[in-house]
Amino acid sequence: ARSANMICIACSGSVPLVAPHGARDPMFGTNPLAYALPRGLDKPPVVCDFATSEIAYWDAVALRQAGQALPANAAIDKSGAPTTDAHHLHALLPFGAHK
């Protein structure tokens, strides 16, 4: 695509994994978004790839499998309380908190 001077945009929906600010249950997917923009043949492209949650779901799974804590403010448990214990993860939180 770079040699053709084209851009790439990819997005995907997913099952509910993210709870909106103030909610206890997941209602949104992580809705990954990726794009790439050429900057000319002599420069590397601009490439962005991210989820709309504070932490990607599979990163949370990897932390759980490794016995490591989740980042603060990345997830809530079933009661809606913040948790860093990946075994109690009920929903991820959106990046940017309430904004």
From TrEMBL:
InterPro entries: Mal/L-sulf/L-lact_DH-like_NADP, Mal/L-sulfo/L-lacto_DH-like_sf, Malate/L-lactate_DH-like. Keywords: Oxidoreductase. It comes from the Eukaryota. GO terms for molecular function: oxidoreductase activity. It holds the Pfam family Ldh_2. Gene3D superfamilies: Hypothetical oxidoreductase yiak, domain 2. Belongs to the LDH2/MDH2 oxidoreductase family. This is Uncharacterized protein. It comes from Erythrolobus australicus. The lineage of its organism: Eukaryota, Rhodophyta, Bangiophyceae, Porphyridiales, Porphyridiaceae.
